[in-house]
Amino acid sequence: MVTFFVLTLFFLLGSSASTSLIGDFHALITLKQGFESPEPDLSTWSSSNLTSVCSWVGVKCFKGRVASLDLSDMNLYGSVSSVFSSLDKLVELSLAGNNFIGEIKIGNLSSLRSLNISNNQFYGGLDWDYSSLKDLEVFDAYNNNFTASLPLGISSLKKLRHLDLGGNYFFGEIPESYGNLIALEYLLLMGNDLKGKIPSELGNLTNLKHIRVGVLQCVFEGGIPREFGKLVNLVHMDISKCELDSSIPRELGNLNSLETLYLHTNLLSSSIPKQLGNLTSLVNLDLSNNALTGEVPYELVSLKQLKLLNLFMNQLHGYIPDVVADFPNLETLQLWMNNFTGMIPKNLGQNGNLQDLDLSSNKLTGTIPQNLCASGHLRILILLKNFLFGSIPENLGNCSSLVRVRLGQNYLNGSIPSGFIYLPQLNLVELQDNYLAGTLSENVDATSKPDKLSELNLSNNLLSGNWKLFPSHIPRLEQKHHLSNSIPPEISKTRILNYLNLSRNHFNETIPKSIGSMKSLTIADFSFNDLSGNLPETGQFSFFNASSFAGNPQLCGSLLNNPCNVPTTTKTPKKASGDFKLVFALGLLICFLVFAAAAIIKAKSFKKSSGSSSSWKMTAFKKVEFTVSEVLECMKNGNVIGRGGAGIVYHDKMPSGTEIAVKKLLGFGPNSHDHGFQAEIRTLGNIRHRNIVRLLAFCSNKETNLLVYEYMRNGSLGEALHGKKGSFLGWHLRYKIALEAARGLCYLHHDCSPLIVHRDVKSNNILLNSNFEAHVADFGLAKFLGDGGASQCMSAVAGSYGYIAPEYAYTLRVDEKSDVYSFGVVLLELIHRATSGGRIWGRHRYCTMD
Ligand SMILES: *[C@@H]1O[C@H](CO)[C@@H](O)[C@H](O)[C@H]1NC(C)=O
Ligand SMILES: *[C@@H]1O[C@H](CO)[C@@H](O)[C@H](O)[C@H]1NC(C)=O
Ligand SMILES: *[C@@H]1O[C@H](CO)[C@@H](O)[C@H](O)[C@H]1NC(C)=O
Ligand SMILES: *[C@@H]1O[C@H](CO)[C@@H](O)[C@H](O)[C@H]1NC(C)=O
Ligand SMILES: *[C@@H]1O[C@H](CO)[C@@H](O)[C@H](O)[C@H]1NC(C)=O
Ligand SMILES: *[C@@H]1O[C@H](CO)[C@@H](O)[C@H](O)[C@H]1NC(C)=O
Ligand SMILES: *[C@@H]1O[C@H](CO)[C@@H](O)[C@H](O)[C@H]1NC(C)=O
Ligand SMILES: *[C@@H]1O[C@H](CO)[C@@H](O)[C@H](O)[C@H]1NC(C)=O
Ligand SMILES: *[C@@H]1O[C@H](CO)[C@@H](O)[C@H](O)[C@H]1NC(C)=O
Ligand SMILES: *[C@@H]1O[C@H](CO)[C@@H](O)[C@H](O)[C@H]1NC(C)=O
Ligand SMILES: *[C@@H]1O[C@H](CO)[C@@H](O)[C@H](O)[C@H]1NC(C)=O
Ligand SMILES: *[C@@H]1O[C@H](CO)[C@@H](O)[C@H](O)[C@H]1NC(C)=O
């Protein structure tokens, strides 16, 4: 207390205001005035109490002066005035993870060691007077809007250890003088618009541990400088997606600390240098998507630590070295689209860690190794388009981790392992164009249901049998007594089989009517089998055409121009269709009841929840300044700003000043509260990109899910284009919006983990913030809606008509290409410029729906 007093007195009497705690106080108050909506967090920043500066939130003092200012992740808005230079004892300054805009200039901070301005929207350049920041060790400007050439002055920072200028729009070349940053350990320049050569001077940075210069728009002429062989402390090197040409320098073999080497998606040619075999610490090696030739050098057998080995899309040939199979940690092996010959190493999988295996489109022969799934973690097994023969290993029948299996276009014989097509995680099974024979086994393990299977291609094999047994997971709706007793429990199960091709086999007996209830089944092919009996004509069957059943002479029905003979037909088909009508009516009734029940429960829960928010749980993905009850409070009718297939959207300003948009998800059954859903939402919450709407938090109770987003002041692109204010978007702005939306989408498709397919790209899902910067919204949600319980009754198609790629509408198979198609429609909309896009979209809709 006494010292405080003395100090204060000293300040008041003595030193000049600009170099004292008083100076710091004024600087901070000025700084705060630049913020747009002050957070309660900064309420401790009181302009009336000068002596409290050191106890302010985010402020730390040392020897009576402000030494550290940490405002990271406080959700602050506004601009930052250049007051920092009077905080001349500042050692650490972090403004990271806010929404600051404007230019920023930092200088005259001779004590500053760490500066973090990442994840904001600062623009302009970074050409500061770095000679006044000579102690700087850490400089993080990642993910801003800087548009300039890389600052030259930085190269005078002899103590700089960490430099991150990634995720901006820096253009031009990497300055040679960056080779003078001798203390540098981290050099991160990825995701800019850099061009030119990678300067060989960077090879002088012998303390470097981590270098990432690739990804996105960079175009580097020439190759990787040989001098990089001097970076002996390097642990992580990522120079991917850069149009690098020439060969991989053999000097890289000197980098014996290297754990990760990513050179994928370049134009690298000639062979893989055998010196890479010296990189014995290597864990991840990705040289895929280049133009590499020759064989895999034998020396790579020393890379015993490898977890990931990707060499796909090159022109490699020769054998796959057997020892690869013995790498104890190998998880991912992708060698597809090369010219590899010989056998698949027979010990592959025995290490107990294999997860992803893709050797497709090579010239491999021999049999499929026996122990691929010894790990119990094998998810992806793709051996498509080779010359493999023999049978599918029986033990794959209980490899319950499998998600994608593509073994088509080989010479496989024998039967399909028992249980195989019922594995619970399976999404895609392609076994077409082989010599598989025998019957399809019945599902013996009742707990294992292929609920996720969306495509099954067994065409062109020798399969046979009474295949009525096959779809045993389909509810037996045709059994009347079931319906009269109780609703079959399976009805709530989602089935998403979209594509079923059984053509050119020997399946016999009748086609099960229950297929008709599989509403997502849009393509089925039963042609050229030995099927007989009546062809059902109700339900999904009404969508199939005659060619789906061609080549089954004993099959009869009006569709086939082969009426069933009189004595049997008069009775059975009528009965069948009668049954089916009943089933349908009941189905609708059930759907209706489910809706009604859900509505009642929801109404109840809302009453309850407005009384107490105790049952609500909030998961925040960043530091948020609002509570669950404040979020609930905002959900009143006056605050509705939108309604859509996905739910109702509310907007409100929180007491703290933050503006949020709350989306209440509709059509979710209790099933959606499982961990899978929560985990997926969490994934969405962790995505941060300049052109993607941030998910701030997720609130749920037993009945309702709320997604809390950052608010986008200028609404959706759809409104901007077609709404009242329509015509004000100039060409330049439209171009910018297109570019930004593409960046957001591109990030979802290529750079985030796991990769996300949006599934509902449209102008109404591209939102504009106060600066008209485009943000992609609502990604990943359509999937839940498509799969989630009640909405199944309405439509199996997720996505919006007019934007859906034709093949998606038909097959319900989604991948990033269907997003790209939808994005193309958005582009047309942007170009078309008219405020009423009705005509062109009308026509378009006709096309896709037809
Ligand atoms: C000013 O702040 C100091 C330190 O936080 C505190 O002890 C003191 O009571 C405050 N004075 C007033 C007038 O609020
Ligand atoms: C900068 O701040 C962000 C957000 O707080 C943090 O994630 C990042 O690690 C910091 N950068 C450095 C180099 O410490
Ligand atoms: C640093 O100090 C000089 C001289 O006092 C001043 O001209 C300059 O504007 C200051 N730089 C910054 C970034 O505040
Ligand atoms: C990004 O920088 C450009 C050019 O400097 C500017 O026109 C644009 O408004 C900035 N965007 C944001 C969101 O600040
Ligand atoms: C840095 O590298 C360049 C070219 O690689 C070389 O000419 C120069 O002498 C090196 N400088 C130092 C200080 O080592
Ligand atoms: C690196 O590899 C080459 C060729 O494979 C070999 O001759 C050399 O001895 C290795 N160097 C070291 C340091 O292991
Ligand atoms: C494989 O080899 C054939 C013939 O040598 C060649 O035409 C083809 O382009 C090669 N394919 C790949 C992916 O390298
Ligand atoms: C498959 O079943 C066999 C025998 O029942 C068992 O030894 C093996 O561990 C199982 N494999 C997996 C992946 O569950
Ligand atoms: C599968 O093919 C192999 C080699 O062509 C043959 O030896 C084997 O008997 C065949 N197995 C069956 C079940 O037909
Ligand atoms: C299924 O296999 C057949 C035969 O190779 C092929 O024509 C068809 O396109 C495949 N279906 C899908 C969806 O890939
Ligand atoms: C099913 O597979 C056969 C080849 O066996 C192919 O000709 C046919 O086009 C496929 N049917 C569909 C609908 O894809
Ligand atoms: C259908 O095929 C199975 C297996 O090949 C055979 O056992 C059964 O008798 C066949 N049924 C008819 C009606 O041909």
Describe what this molecule looks like in 3D.
This protein is of the alpha/beta class. Among the domains are: 611-710, Phosphorylase Kinase, domain 1 (2-Layer Sandwich), CATH 3.30.200.20; 717-845, Transferase(Phosphotransferase), domain 1, CATH 1.10.510. It is 19% helix and 20% strand. The chain has 13 helices and 47 strands. The strands form seven sheets. The chain has a 20-stranded mixed beta sheet, with no helix packed on it. Strands 18-20-22-24-26-28-30 form a seven-stranded parallel beta sheet, with no helix packed on it. Strands 40-44-45-43-42-41 form a six-stranded antiparallel beta sheet, covered by helices on one side. The structure holds 2-acetamido-2-deoxy-beta-D-glucopyranose (12 copies). Residues 72-73, 94, 96-97, 116, 118, 138, 140, 162 line the site of one 2-acetamido-2-deoxy-beta-D-glucopyranose (NAG). One 2-acetamido-2-deoxy-beta-D-glucopyranose binds next to strand 33 and strand 35. It is found in: Cell membrane.
